[in-house]
C-alpha cells in the first residue's frame, strides 16, 4: 500500500473549520463578534475553539469575565493561521479570474489627492478588470487587521514583513503664492520669508530648512502654533496668499506650473523619510499587486 499524503491525513483528522473560527475570534478578541461575522452562535464558536484546543493540546484563549484573551500559544498561532487563510483566499480569487479582482489601496491623504487621483485613470485603462478601492488616513495600517492590499506610506521603508518600493522622494521647501511675495516687494533671500505669515510653524521641517538656508534661529515660536496636519490644506492656504507653506514640491507640480505657487529658492531638504509602496512580502506575486507595482514604478516621474 502506498503511504498517504500527509496533507490528506491532516484534512481528514484535523478540524480545519475550527481554524477559521479561531482566526475570527483572535481578530475580534470575542467569541460573540466572531460568531456574528461567521453566522454562528457564541456556543458554536466556543465548541470549535475547544475542539481545536483539544486537538493541539494547548490552551489558545484565557477565558476572563466578559472577554477572552489570547494565551501565549494563541498569540503564536494567530498570525500563522491568518496568513494561511489569506493565501487560500488569494488562491481562490486567482482561480476566479481577473474579472473579479478588486484592489484596495490605502494611502496618505496628500498622496491620494495630489497624485493618485490624477493618475489612477491610466491604471484603470491598462487594467480594466481590476476594480480599485481607495481609502485614506494618516495612520500606518496593520495588514493583518485591515482589508487593504497595498499601502502608500511615508517613512523609511523599513517595516518588518513588508516588501517596500520607494515611489517618491519626500523633499521639502517653502512654497507661496506670487501675490503674497509681491506684498513685500518680492522674496529675494531666505530671511524675507520671515516677514510673511508662516503656515504650520511648529512643523519640524521648518527649522531643518532654515538651518540649510543659513538661518539657525528663525524665531518660529512667534508665529501661531497652528498645525493643519495635511499638506493639501497647507497648500490651499498658501494659494490663497495667507502664508508660506513648507511642502513637497513634487506633489504640487501642477499648481506650480499654473502659477498658483512658486518655490523662491532651490534649497530643498529631506529628513530621510519618503513615500513607499508597501505590501506583505508573501503577497508579492499576487496578480493585482504585481500589476499595480509595475504600473506605479513605471509611471512615477523620473525625478521622484
From TrEMBL:
Transmembrane segments: none annotated. Pfam families: HTH_1, LysR_substrate. Residues 14-71 form the HTH lysR-type domain. GO terms for molecular function: DNA-binding transcription factor activity; sequence-specific DNA binding. One of its GO terms (biological process) is DNA-templated transcription. Keywords: DNA-binding, Transcription, Transcription regulation. Belongs to the LysR transcriptional regulatory family. PANTHER family: HTH-TYPE TRANSCRIPTIONAL REGULATOR, HTH-TYPE TRANSCRIPTIONAL REGULATOR TRPI. This is LysR family transcriptional regulator.
Amino acid at each position: 500500500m502506498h503511504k498517504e499524503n500527509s496533507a490528506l491525513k491532516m484534512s481528514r483528522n484535523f478540524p480545519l473549520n475550527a481554524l477559521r473560527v479561531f482566526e475570527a475570534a483572535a481578530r475580534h478578541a470575542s467569541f460573540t463578534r466572531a460568531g456574528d461575522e461567521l453566522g454562528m452562535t457564541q456556543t458554536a464558536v466556543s465548541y470549535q475553539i475547544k475542539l481545536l484546543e483539544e486537538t493541539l493540546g494547548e490552551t489558545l484563549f484565557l477565558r476572563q469575565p466578559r472577554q477572552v484573551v489570547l494565551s501565549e500559544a494563541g498569540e503564536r498561532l494567530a498570525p500563522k493561521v491568518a496568513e494561511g487563510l489569506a493565501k487560500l483566499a488569494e488562491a481562490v480569487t486567482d482561480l476566479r479570474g481577473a474579472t473579479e479582482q478588486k484592489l484596495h489601496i490605502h494611502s496618505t491623504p496628500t498622496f491620494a489627492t495630489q497624485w493618485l487621483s490624477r493618475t489612477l485613470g491610466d491604471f484603470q485603462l491598462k487594467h480594466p478588470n481590476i476594480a480599485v478601492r481607495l481609502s485614506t488616513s494618516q495612520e500606518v495600517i496593520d495588514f493583518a487587521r485591515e482589508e487593504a492590499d497595498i499601502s502608500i506610506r511615508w517613512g523609511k521603508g523599513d517595516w518588518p514583513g513588508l516588501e517596500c518600493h520607494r515611489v517618491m522622494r519626500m523633499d521639502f521647501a517653502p512654497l507661496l503664492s506670487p501675490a503674497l511675495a509681491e506684498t513685500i516687494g518680492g522674496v529675494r533671500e531666505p530671511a524675507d520669508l520671515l516677514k510673511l505669515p508662516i503656515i504650520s510653524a511648529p512643523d519640524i521641517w521648518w527649522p531643518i530648512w532654515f538651518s540649510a538656508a543659513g538661518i539657525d534661529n528663525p524665531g518660529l515660536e512667534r508665529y501661531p502654533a497652528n498645525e493643519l496636519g495635511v499638506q493639501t490644506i497647507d497648500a490651499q492656504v498658501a494659494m490663497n496668499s495667507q502664508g508660506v507653506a513648507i511642502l513637497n514640491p513634487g506633489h504640487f507640480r501642477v499648481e506650480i506650473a499654473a502659477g498658483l505657487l512658486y518655490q523662491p529658492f532651490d534649497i530643498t531638504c529631506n529628513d530621510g523619510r519618503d513615500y513607499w509602496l508597501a505590501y506583505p512580502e508573501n503577497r508579492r506575486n499576487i496578480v493585482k499587486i504585481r500589476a499595480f507595482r509595475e504600473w506605479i514604478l513605471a509611471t512615477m516621474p523620473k525625478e521622484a
